[in-house]
Write a structure and sequence with these properties.
Pnp Oxidase, Chain A, 2 domains, 3 helices, 10 strands, globular
Length: about 210
């Protein structure tokens, strides 16, 4: 009689072999479809940003980096990304002190991640009318926003990284680097770091 441990071992080895074959098949497929043009890469990244309801905001506090999930507004025509918060919140204080933040957009279904390094500011309260505010946020601001309890953070993208498994944005060495872009004027160009185009270590990659 075959022991259950032997059967389990055989199944695990078969599963590993199947996944290894799947990985090689994906590599063969992806290398023939890889996107390398910076303008196309930027378009793919911006599409993910626009279609994402939430993102992760990372700021630098006096105790180190801190992160939290926010619901941003859709990007403006110039690329600026905004979100609302309480002016007494930690992220508002961090932005006021450092003038920057990192936005992270992840899409598990498409196996993709976009990180955006931004110059960040707290916007002044408009002289007339009200600032950007989502109706559902009355759950948190039941009387509506006021200059004392609400502020909009404006994030102007400067650098961007993307790794996309479905659209296949994955520079060499394949799968171990993200594609890095830099904002120049109104355009995104490939960011050439100290190690050459898109060869810097990345926080946005699958492995």
């Amino acid at each position: 009689m075959v022991s259950s441990s032997l059967v389990g071992s055989v199944r695990r080895r078969a599963a590993r072999a199947a996944f290894a074959s799947l990985g090689r098949a994906y590599r063969w497929w992806a290398l023939r479809r890889r996107v390398t043009d910076p303008s196309r890469v930027a378009a793919i990244a911006l599409k993910q940003i626009r279609s994402s309801r939430y993102c992760l905001v990372v700021t630098e506090s006096d105790r180190g980096p801190t992160a939290r999930v926010v619901e941003p507004f859709p990007p403006a025509a110039d690329g600026t990304i905004r979100f609302g918060t309480d002016p007494s919140s930690r992220k508002a204080r961090d932005v006021l002190r450092s003038g920057r933040c990192l936005l992270v957009y992840q899409d598990d279904r498409r196996r993709s991640c976009v990180t955006v390094d931004c110059a960040a500011t707290l916007e002044d309260w408009p002289e007339s009318g009200s600032p950007r505010f989502k109706a559902m946020w009355t759950a948190f601001w039941p009387s509506g926003p006021t200059p004392q309890n609400y502020v909009v953070v404006a994030c102007k993208p400067r650098f961007m990284e993307i790794w996309h498994g479905t659209a296949v944005v994955a520079p060499e060495p394949f799968g171990r680097r993200s594609f890095q872009l830099r904002r120049v004027g109104g355009s995104w160009i490939a960011d050439e770091g100290d190690d050459g185009p898109q060869q810097q270590s990345s926080s946005c990659k699958p492995c």
